[in-house]
Amino acid sequence: MQIVHAENITTNRMQEFELVALKHIDSLHRTALYMSGNEDDALDLVQDTYLRAYRFFDKFQTGTNCKAWLLTILRNTFMNSIRRKKRKLQTIHLSEMEEYGSEISDESTPEDDLLKDKFDDDLTAAIESLPAVYKKVVLMSDLQGLSYKEIADSVGCPIGTVMSRLSRGRGLLRKRLKKYAVQNGYI
User: Fold this and answer.
1) CATH topology of domain 108-183
2) Which of 109, 100, 99, 104 is nearest to 139 (CA)?
3) CA atoms within 13 A on the CB side of 64
4) d(C-alpha 174, C-alpha 187), whole Å
5) For residue 61, how many C-alpha atoms fall within 13 Å in the half-sphere facing its CB?
6) I need a surface site. Which of 25, 93, 130, 177 has the fewest CB within 10 A?
7) How many whole angstroms separate alpha carbon 54 and alpha carbon 9?
8) Mind listing the pLDDT tens digit of every residue in the chain (187 residues)?
9) Residue ranges of the domains in the chain?
10) How far apart, in whole angstroms, are the C-alpha atoms of residue 127 and residue 169?
11) Are 2 and 46 in contact (CB under 8 A)?
């Protein structure tokens, strides 16, 4: 009978976690940035996700899709943080809003900056005009390169719904960009 020391189990577990899970950190960060719209919140969200994933790594089934598992933890962590923030919200009276109205600015989100950096104004406007459910899956698929399964896990809906939304979103973009495509010689 061989005696296994707890230190070896911990070291092996840590090595396996690093090998299997940490390679998805960039993808998780992009998704967290998309979800939170803020770099600091995204970093916190990724850190919380990895802490939870490490803590429950014994529940992960080796050989399954680790990225999908991590995206599920990320989504759940994000939803829990939103619920906590909602509980902490205070009621603001209309007079207080008018008082601070001049200080409120329309800050751009990281995804807005990403669109502006990658595309010209016509393309950005077409993407921005998409309904939110279509825009989200189009950006996750076409800009972030996530699979249907990863998007489904991230947004919390079936793969068929993701495929349908992606098809409809791309169809709307096609219609909205037809004139642009002709003008620029794409068709």
Assistant:
1) Arc Repressor Mutant, subunit A (1.10.10)
2) 109
3) 10
4) 12
5) 3
6) 93
7) 14
8) 344 444 444 677 788 888 888 899 998 998 888 888 888 888 999 999 999 998 888 888 888 888 888 988 998 888 888 777 766 554 444 444 444 444 434 455 545 554 555 556 777 788 888 888 888 888 888 877 788 888 888 888 898 999 999 999 999 988 888 887 788 776 7
9) 6-88, 108-183
10) 9
11) no
Assigned token pair, 178: 């037809």
Rounded distance between C-alpha atoms, residue 173 and residue 165, angstroms: 12
User: In whole angstroms, what is the distance from residue 38 CA to residue 70 CA?
Assistant: 20
Q: Could you tell me how many residues make up the chain?
A: 187
| Residue carrying the six token digits 């916190």 | 44
**Residue 177 token pair:** 């960009």
Question: In the structure encoding, which two tokens stand for residue 10, read together?
Answer: 């911990």
CATH fold of 6-88 reads Rna Polymerase Sigma Factor; Chain: A (1.10.1740)
